[in-house]
C-alpha cells in the first residue's frame, strides 16, 4: 500500500505537470525541512531535517543530504547523520542543522532540541561523523536551536543561533570551542523592525504581541556578500515569514531591511538558507505544500533571485515553478543514480549498506523525471538500468521529453535479483532532453509493487562503441564498456542469451 505522502504527492505533481514545469517542492519522496545549503566546488550540498509522516508534532531523528550540480536534479544521498551520532542525544529532536567546511574537515552544527547544540566532524560532506566533544558546544537553555555558522574573510568563525532570542559566539580555529562568552544580540526595533512583548489578556492568560512592523523569531542564516553581512531569519511570530537585517560587522549593530518572503503555504514555520551557486543567487525555505503536508510535515523549496544594485534583497515570491533552468547539463553517459530526480510521482527512496540509496515503492503509473541531459551530437544508442523485481512483473519505459514518447522499454519481470538490463533505443537521441523513467505493470489489475531501481546509464552512438553487452540478442545485456572495449563498471548480475535460452549470471 502506498503511503499518504506518495499518493498525495502524486496529486500535486500531476497538477504541477499540467502547469508545465513546476519544481517546488524540490523533494517529493519524503517530507524535508530546515534547508541548509552549502556550496563546495561544483556541487551544492543540501542538508535537510526529515519530518515524520504520521501524527502531529516533530518526530525528528536524522538529517538527509541531497546534492545537485545543476539546481534542477537532486540526488538523494540518504541519511547523512542522526541522533545516534551523539551519545548524549535522546530519541527525538534532530532539528535544523548547518554544515560548513574548513581545512578539508566538515563540521555539522546540530541542535538536539532541549539538549543543546552539538558539533559533528567529518572527513567529507557525507561523513562519517565523529562527535569529539561528546557533549553540546552550546547548552544555555531551551532556546538553543537553529545554529548558523559562518567564517569571515579573516578566518574568524562565528556561530549564531536562537529561538525567541539571538546569540552568537566567536568559534576557536578548531571550530569546537569559543573565545569569550556567549553574546546576546539585542532584539531592537532598529535591528529587527520590532520586538515581542508579553502581556496578560482579559482572561488572565499570558500572551505575546509584536510591537513594531516585524520581529525576529528563529532560524538565523548569516553570511557575507560583497563586504556586507546579512542576517536572514524567520520573523513575525507565528505564523512566520522571512525577513532580513544587514550590518557592516558580524558583531552588529544590525539594521532591519524588511520582509523577503511571505508565510509559506500550509506551514506555520519557515526557515531560510541563502547561497550563490554558479553565478546565481538562491533562497531555500520550506512550506507545507506537498500533498499531505502541514506545519509538521514540511518540504524544501527554492527560488532564484537577484540582489538589488545596492546589495539589498528584493521581496521574493514563493512559486510552485521554483527553479526550472539547469545551470549545467548532466551527461547521460556516466552512471547516474536512479535517485537523481527533478520530479517524481509515487516514488520512495530507501537505503542499505550493500546498495546505498535506491528507488523503492515503484507501482504502475509512477515515474521519475530527470531534467536537461546532454546527449551530444552523436547521440545515444542504448540504455542500461540496474533494477530488481519486487512482487509484480513490470517494465521501465524510457521516455524523452514527454511521458508519451517512449524510446526504449526494459522488461524487469525476470530480474529476481539486482540486474543490469539494456535495451536499444528506437531512435537516436541527440542534444539536450529531459528523460522520464515510467514504471508499468504487465498485469495492471495487480496493484503490488513492481521493482526497485538503483542506477542507469546511456551508451553513446560514438565510433568505436559497439555495445554494452556480452550478448546483444534480444536486448538483454550486461556490463558497460568504454571506447576501447574495456568494462567500466562491474555488472551486478546479467541476463545472457545463448542458443535462444536466457541464463542468469
Ligand atoms: O524543525 C524544527 C524547527 O522548526 C526548527 O528548528 C525551526 O527553525 C522551525 O523550522
Share of helix, binned? under 10%
The CATH superfamily name of the largest domain is: Glycosyl hydrolase domain, family 43
Overall pLDDT score: 90
The CATH architecture of the largest domain: 5 Propeller
What would a concise description of this structure say?
With 505 residues, this protein is mainly β. Helices cover 4% and strands 47% of the residues.
Description of the structure:
With 505 residues, the chain is mainly beta. The protein has two domains: 31-305, Tachylectin-2, Chain A (5 Propeller), CATH 2.115.10.20; 336-504, Sandwich (Jelly Rolls). Helices cover 4% and strands 47% of the residues. Strands 22, 25, 26, 28, 31 and 33 form a six-stranded antiparallel beta sheet that branches. Strands 1-2-3-4-23 form a five-stranded antiparallel beta sheet, with no helix packed on it. The longest helix has 16 residues, at 4-19. The protein starts with a helix and ends with a strand. Bound molecules: beta-L-arabinofuranose (FUB). Beta-L-arabinofuranose (FUB) binds at residues 33-34, 49, 58, 95-96, 145-146, 218-219, 234, 269, 271. Beta-L-arabinofuranose (FUB) binds next to β1 and β15.
Features:
505 residues, mainly beta, Jelly Rolls, binds beta-L-arabinofuranose, 6-stranded antiparallel β-sheet, 2 domains, Tachylectin-2, Chain A, disordered C terminus
Ordered list of secondary-structure elements with their pairings:
Elements (H helix, E strand, L loop, with lengths): L3 H16 L12 E9 L2 E8 L11 E7 L5 E9 L15 E5 L2 E8 L3 E7 L6 E2 L17 E4 L5 E5 L4 E6 L6 E8 L3 H4 L1 E7 L5 E7 L3 E10 L2 E8 L5 E7 L7 E7 L11 E5 L2 E8 L11 E7 L30 E2 L2 E2 L1 E3 L2 E5 L3 E7 L4 E8 L5 E10 L4 E7 L5 E6 L7 E11 L2 E10 L9 E10 L19 E2 L5 E3 L5 E4 L2 E4 L1
Antiparallel strand pairs: 1-2, 2-3, 3-4, 4-23, 5-6, 6-7, 7-8, 9-10, 10-11, 11-12, 13-14, 15-16, 16-17, 17-18, 19-20, 20-21, 22-33, 24-27, 25-26, 26-33, 27-32, 28-31, 28-33, 29-30, 29-32, 34-35, 36-37
The chain binds beta-L-arabinofuranose.
